[in-house]
Amino acid sequence: MILHVKNMVCNRCVLYVERILKELAIAYDKVNVGEIHLSNELGEGKKQELGKHLQEIGLELIDNRLNQLIEKSKKLILELARNEVSPGEKKQKLSYYLTDKLHLDYFYLSSLFSAAEGRTIEKYFIEQRTEKVKELLVFDELSLSEIAYQLEYSSVAHLSTQFKKTTGLTPSQFKKSGENKLKALDNV
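Above: the chain sequence. Below: its structure as tokens.
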């Protein structure tokens, strides 16, 4: 049995969900971003208890098919934005990638997504790419050119423009603000 979970977007969420499942003594095979693969069917009482615990950490069990489709779309967008797909898939346009993976018309997906999320698929994709750029800037292991190349931006200028539109800061301003916060913490 597979349960779908809303707002589950990272590996830290997976760890929290695994901890909750263990606390509630719910047998599971694996937990992926957006999904819990249970070993056995779950009774309604136990399912409600699980739902309550998930809500406490900002997650939610998804019961209807449309919500499951939106969450699956978000998971696929997140993987593409974070460059966690095969080399052939990286080269696909977002619309083709989603259509290929979900076997649904892109216009239909886009309309559903916008209605449910209050933003377009493209805007969500850009936000997720920006989050990945922030993460890489904080780790400070790659230059901006290397980040642009790794995340398939057409240029550093394109990355910087999109980053500023999304965050209000240039990548260097963002990096500098992070360094200042770290220095302040060191002085405490």
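Residues 48 and 61 are 9 Å apart (CA to CA).
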